[in-house]
Give the backbone structure.
Amino acid sequence: MIWDWAFAFEILPVLGRAAIVTIEATLLGFIIAALLGLVLAVVRIAVPWTGWTISVLVELIRSTPLLIQIFFLYFVLPKFGVVLDAFTAGVLAIGIHYAAYCSEVYRAGFDNIHRGQWEAAIALNLSSWTTFKDIIIPQAIPPIVPALGNYLVALFKETPLLSAIAVLELMQTAKIIGSETFRYTEPITLVGLFFLAMSLVSAALIRSLEGVLNRRTMR
Amino acid sequence: MGIRTLVGMLVAALAVIGVLATQEAYSLFLPGLLQGAVLTIEIALLGSLLAVVMGVLAALARMYGPAPLRWLATVYVEIFRGTSALVQLFWLFFVLPQFGVSLDAFLVAVLALGLNVGAYGSEVVRGAIQSVARGQWEAATALNMSRAQMLRRIILPQAFVAMIPPWGNLFIELLKSTALVSLITLSDLAFKAQQMNQNTFKTIPIFTLVLLMYLAMSLVLTIGMRLLERRASLGLARGRAA
């Protein structure tokens, strides 16, 4: 028997609990990515001399594998006295990795704001903090929401990497079930189906969100 | 980022590796890591080749194929884009043998990464073909070309230029994904790093070298794709499509 339904149903609750860890890691990682990315993009504009440093930093983060970055945070930080548990180190690494990608998305959003908006803000003597908070960000964010959404899905699909530092998320749990029972077919296939379902649903959500945002900006 | 900055970064990365190699704490690990890097490069090259082939085939099947082929290509693209690369790698490595198909780890790595990136690539190819002006199709029809001739002689050479930058990004993704193959027992760069780290606990030198080596490989790839793009679009601007 290649596929055992009874076994599949038996492991479903265990995988379900692990799926919660996966979703937690996704959401926390994305919060870090979205906020840190925004900070990087704003600092780059607000403090011009940081531009070169930030773009080199972004290039460094984007050119090296996430897996190595996860190992780096998990194994190297303790040498400097910062001991993080696997979940925290992993989520932090994923968040920083995707912050580099998100900062480029925000930058595209800022570049799309008409020059006159910046000039008007200067003419009205607004501080650069108020300019960003009340003028630029409210206009720049809605058009880039779909792009950020795509990175959320991409980040979600990277969370299995956390299994490499033994975080008990979906993939790690599936591997443990596999090594205990010598049945890999059901756990790994179920994990794959879970990712497929979530990705398809979120892709559909992003498409409809895009439609809503387009209609709003068309008005 | 300009090509000069990229070349500057590459030179800097190689210089740092060179300087570190003179230190005994670092040079100790270099031979093993280089061995791993060779495997990483092999997998990346073969995977990229498979990705391009799959990308073009899936895009053509989805656009011009008969219904069953179109359906098959769509399922392929959705499955490989919808699940994560690591799940695909594990599925091919652990589950496929239970259906009686045992592939060795190297083949699994190339297959999984190539098929994964190929699925993303098919969208790139599709977009690039659709970006070729309608008039080109009409002119080719007027010249009485067959569909295959049109694609081969008129459309694909022009679409090729539009494809280069997004394929460059995908190749970088693939290169970075090769780190995952360390989890299915292949001794690539990431695996060597892990292994040496467990044996010696010299975490900082090992991972610094590994990050620099991946950086150098990515930069070589980025610079290469930029040069290719420059060359290919030069040809178009002069009106003699590549």
Summary: The interface with chain B takes residues 2, 55-56, 59-60, 62-69, 71-72, 75-76, 79, 157-161, 163-164, 171, 174-175, 178, 183-185, 188-189, 191-192, 195-196, 199-200, 203 of chain A (CB under 8 Å). Chain A has eight helices and no strands. The helical segments of chain A are 5-46, 51-63, 66-76, 86-111, 115-123, 128-158, 170-181, 185-218.
